[in-house]
Design goal:
By secondary structure, this protein is mainly α. The chain has a single domain, classed as Oxo-4-hydroxy-4-carboxy-5-ureidoimidazoline decarboxylase (UraD-like). The longest helix is centred in the C-terminal third of the chain and has 23 residues.
C-alpha cells in the first residue's frame, strides 16, 4: 500500500520569553533589571553591553565571569546595595539579638554588610547557617573576606538573575528549582 505525502511537521509558534525580552530591551531597561540583581553599575553595564545571550546559562556565565573583574570600588558598590539575610519567621527574640550583635561586629570589622548565599539551605536552618558563617568569617583578614564576600555576591546575583529569567525555556530556570550550581 502506498502512502500519501507526509504532512509537514506541526510547529508551535515560539513566543518571546524573559530572556528574549531582556535581549531586545533598550539598554537602560536591561541595565535597570541587572542593577536590581547586581547592585553595581559597572557589572550591570558589562552584562548589558554583551547582549544578546543565546540562553540563560550563557548570561549566568557572563555574570559570573564579570565578578572576577570587579574593582574594589565596584565590589564596595555591590556590597552597599545588599541587605542583611532575612530572619525566619518565629525566631526567638534572643536569636534576633544574637544576630544583630553578630552583624554589627562584622560590619565594624569589614565595613560592609555580611552577605551569604542561602539558596541551598533549608529555611529552618538559615539562622544557624548565617550565625555560623559570620562567626567563622570574622576570623578572616580583610582581603580574604573581600574575596569570600565577592564569591557570595556572585552566587546571590546568579540566583537573582535565574529567578528573574525563570521560564526562559532553559533547564537552569526550571519551575522545579534551579539547576545545580545556581
Amino acid at each position: 500500500m502506498t502512502r500519501g505525502p507526509t504532512l509537514p511537521a506541526h510547529r508551535l509558534p515560539v513566543l518571546p520569553g524573559p530572556l528574549d525580552a531582556f535581549n531586545a530591551a533598550p539598554a537602560d531597561e536591561a541595565g535597570a533589571l541587572l542593577l536590581h540583581c547586581l547592585h553595581s553599575l559597572h557589572w550591570s553595564r558589562r552584562i548589558t553591553d554583551h547582549r544578546p545571550y543565546p540562553d540563560v546559562a550563557s548570561l549566568l556565565a557572563a555574570a559570573d565571569e564579570a565578578t572576577y573583574d570587579l574593582s574594589p570600588g565596584d565590589l564596595s558598590e555591590a556590597l552597599a546595595g545588599e541587605c542583611l539575610p532575612p530572619v525566619p519567621e518565629g525566631t526567638y527574640p534572643a536569636a534576633h539579638t544574637a544576630l544583630s550583635a553578630a552583624h554589627a561586629t562584622y560590619e565594624a570589622r569589614f565595613g560592609h554588610v555580611f552577605v551569604i548565599y542561602l539558596g541551598d539551605t533549608p529555611p529552618a536552618e538559615s539562622l544557624d547557617h548565617v550565625l555560623a558563617g559570620i562567626r567563622s568569617r570574622l576570623t578572616n583578614d580583610p582581603e580574604e573576606e573581600r574575596v569570600i564576600a565577592a564569591e557570595q555576591l556572585r552566587r546571590l546575583a546568579r540566583g537573582r538573575l535565574a529567578e528573574k529569567l525563570r521560564g526562559a525555556g532553559n533547564c537552569a530556570t526550571s519551575p522545579h528549582g534551579a539547576a545545580p550550581g545556581i
